[in-house]
Design goal:
By secondary structure, the chain is an all-alpha fold. The chain has 2 domains: 46 residues; 45 residues. The chain has 2 helices and no strands. The longest helix is centred in the first third of the chain and has 43 residues. The termini are far apart. 0% of the residues are buried.
Length: 92
């Protein structure tokens, strides 16, 4: 028969093992998620030509948006100056 102190020590050891098992299970789950993410990224970045084309398309969209904004600002400034000119000349 086990003494009270041995029984308590074994109970504590069992609790430690259960805690460790929980941590290992949690870590395994995290690692599985990371592997899944890496596999997805590998698929995404594995096709370099498509990745390059996507980046180029986004760059062009950004360039077009920048040009459109600049043109819009210039048109607005031109319209303001035209209105001021018409007001100055009393044609409004």
């Amino acid at each position: 028969m086990l003494s009270h102190s041995e029984s308590r020590r074994l109970q504590q050891d069992l609790e430690k093992v259960q805690q460790l098992e929980g941590k290992i299970t949690e870590e395994l789950s995290t690692l599985k998620e990371q592997v899944s993410t890496m596999e997805s990224e590998l698929h995404t970045y594995g096709d370099l030509e498509t990745l390059r084309q996507t980046a180029e398309d986004k760059r062009k969209e950004s360039d077009y948006a920048s040009v459109a904004k600049i043109v819009s600002q210039q048109v607005e400034e031109y319209n303001k100056s035209l209105i001021e000119s018409l007001q100055t000349n009393g044609l409004k």
